[in-house]
Write a structure and sequence with these properties.
about 100 residues; alpha+beta; three-stranded antiparallel sheet; two-stranded antiparallel ribbon; 3 helices; about 40% helix; YlxR_dom; YlxR-like_sf; RNA-binding protein YlxR (DUF448 family); YlxR
């Protein structure tokens, strides 16, 4: 039996290819709302970031989310994402550890 194909995505900050489940999806909805999508199923344009805070800071510095989401992301949204990202970071790290076991 063939092994199941694992979908890969690229982190917009560090440009590293990783399995989709190990990345955090940031989505720009059709209503122009930017938020974190843990399910990976919300409609809209998506961008992926590693679960590391350093990658989020790099994306903020380089405006990588602006390019990936094809639109201006306001500083207020970056602040909200930073707060959400720190809260979600622990969940992502725990999920990655479960996959390795």
């Amino acid at each position: 039996m063939k092994p199941k194909k694992v979908p890969l995505r690229k982190c917009v900050a560090c440009q590293e290819m990783m399995p989709k489940k190990q990345l955090i999806r940031i989505v720009k909805t059709p209503e122009d709302e930017v938020l974190i999508d843990l399910t990976g199923k919300k409609s809209g344009r998506g961008a992926y970031l590693c679960g590391k805070e350093s990658c989020f800071k790099l994306a903020l510095k380089n405006r990588a989310l602006d390019r990936a989401l094809k639109g201006k992301v306001s500083p207020e949204i970056y602040e909200q994402l930073a707060a959400d990202f720190i809260a979600v970071e622990d969940e992502v790290i725990a999920a990655q550890e479960r996959e390795h076991d």
